[in-house]
Amino acid sequence: TLFRSDPTSPRLIADMAHQTGIHATPELKEFFAKARNGSVRLIKVVIEDEQLILGAYKELSGAWDRDYDSFVLPLLDETQPCYILYRLDTQNAQGFEWLFISWSPDNSPVRLKMLYAATRATVKKEFGGGHIKDELFGTLKEDISLGGYKKHVSSCSAPAPLTAAERELQEIKISEGRVAQVKTEISVESKHQTLQGLAFPLRPEAEKAILLLKQKKLNYVQLKLDLEKETTELVHTNPTEIAELPQRIPEDSARYHLFLYKHSHEGDYLESVVFIYSMPGYKCSIKERMLYSSCKNRLLDSVEQDLQLEIAKKIEIESGAELTAEFLYDEVHPKQHAFKQAFAKPKGPAGKRGQKRLIKGPGENGEDI
Fold first, then answer.
1. For 84-94, how does the pLDDT look when each residue is reduced to its tens digit (9 = 90+)?
2. In whole angstroms, what is the distance from residue 234 CA to residue 98 CA?
3. What is the distance between the alpha carbons of residues 230 and 44, in angstroms, rounded to a whole number?
4. CA atoms of 215 and 255, how far apart (whole Å)
């Protein structure tokens, strides 16, 4: 079994939100250092006894794509999540580049999925984020297979003038009679207008809910596209706490979410609106994926400009398991302030010094100190 302790224990559930106590063992850190020199093709990492440990590894055999399916797929358990680091044959300034795979099968317990999602950033940090070229998340083996990875790369690269997915979207529009004339050659500018200009207007009840959230009378709004009516509909406005947020994310359909994130930051109490676009990958049709992606920017324009709702952060996710308290906090407050310590004023010379002088000058926000 993956856990010798009870996976439903309160402390472990707290770990899911805060990554408390989940770190690599010294043996795994040592193996990471050895693997980064390029002699290892694959590393499997699992959580056991609330620690990250080495689950398996594979030495180099052939080219990365020849080894891929025979190395990766047999290590995927149908009920247990894991992480896999797979060495590619390309290099950057830090050495060989790696693919970081997060495996979270549908049949695994929800708490286990949440634990692995919350610890993903820790694994990347322990290994060294600069070595990771790409990331892949999957719930089915076909998502993680070589074919699935190539689909992922293809969807990210988007070759000009149109990707295969964009051509499919164009065909959908033609079949629905939404495009009267199709040009065989599409420039970058017209492509941008075609894909970014798609808008499904907000229904009145959806606008009302967003305005109530702006007034802080609601703390959560979920929206969906009505593909038949070509409108953006209100799904519900159920009160939602951070711990309940993952449960609001559908596993088989896309959604837009607005969440009033109440939290403390550096001693201040804040209420920040977060926009979440959830898209559960290939579980949705190509039509649904492309329409949600294409309507997102126009929806945000309507919310921010027409309804004057200030959005602190925009997030895209595949699974509700990603929405842990720590993930949300780090997204809204990236840890850039940590680098300020590097520019601290050096200490003056030792010895007798005069009295301190009070110097009046502008503060951080322009006020006098």
1. 999 999 998 88
2. 41
3. 45
4. 22
